[in-house]
Design goal:
This protein is an all-alpha fold and 288 residues long. The chain has ten helices and no strands. Helix 6 packs antiparallel against helix 10.
Length: 288
Amino acid sequence: MDLFFNTAFDLYQLITHNSFARVVFALLTGAMIGSFINVVVYRLPQMLKNYAVIDMHLMHPTELTESRARALLADVGLGGRSITPCCDNRIKARHNIPIISYLFLRGRCAYCSTLISSRYLINELVMALLCVLLVMLGLNNLALFFMTSITALLLIVANIDIRYRLLPPQLTMPIGFTAILMVHYDLVLITMSQGIISAIALYIFLTVANDFVAKTKGQILLGQGDVELIVAVTIAIGAQMSLTVLALATLSSWLVAKIRRVEGKKERAFGQYISVFTFGALLILVQT
């Protein structure tokens, strides 16, 4: 046991005092977090769907067999071994190494050779590089932990919104909680009173604006999930920065829609733009 603690302490000393070791550690940690992000992005929407079906069964028991309900209940967690979506085989440990396994398998399933989406590799690479960026900023350990946490949550939000046009409170609430803790520990240049008041004021403003536009033009400015997301991050970045994030997100969404020639009435994934510019705002406001 003493050997374990001595080794762990020596490793900690190496990581904290050696810049190269910190970068390598950040790369490895970021890649592993990115792998977990892929799991959440794949499983969370399925979990929410299963819960909805189970709720329907509780209201209308005849529409769902008990065996089917039990099967759905057994499949509503983020834990358990990963399986291949294409052929339902369990993924072996050697096939689940972040970045390396994808490259080794050349982006194909190890069992049936079906092409695997490049988004799995992209998420792992992006999170790894973002972790390196955060380390290079020279953040203290507490700031680094919370910035890594909220960055991972924002990346999950962006992915799920892109794929499913979905921003569930199961994601926006943890972001809000993380923002509160960051303010509490003085990790950002925002006081708790500023953050809370700004969030409440912005929520009221967006709700009133949505109602007004809905009554006058028959559409809404932002979806409920988008509102909850921007309000959650406002706690940590303040009202002024939140409005800047919204403006930049709106401009980016419009430009991308024009480039891709997406029709104005077609639903767009707005959460991804909020996530990107929120990360930028946090980089500006975080205290080292």
